Amino acid sequence: MKRTDVISWDEYFMGLAHLSALRSKDPNTQVGACIVDNNKHVVSIGYNGMPFGCDDDEYAWDREGDLLDTKYPYVVHAELNAILNASRSLRDCTIYVSLFPCNECAKAIIQAGIKELVYEDDKYDGIDTNIASKRMLKDAGIKMRKLNERLEIKLIKSHE
Question: How far apart are CA 1 and CA 29, in angstroms?
Answer without folding.
Answer: 42
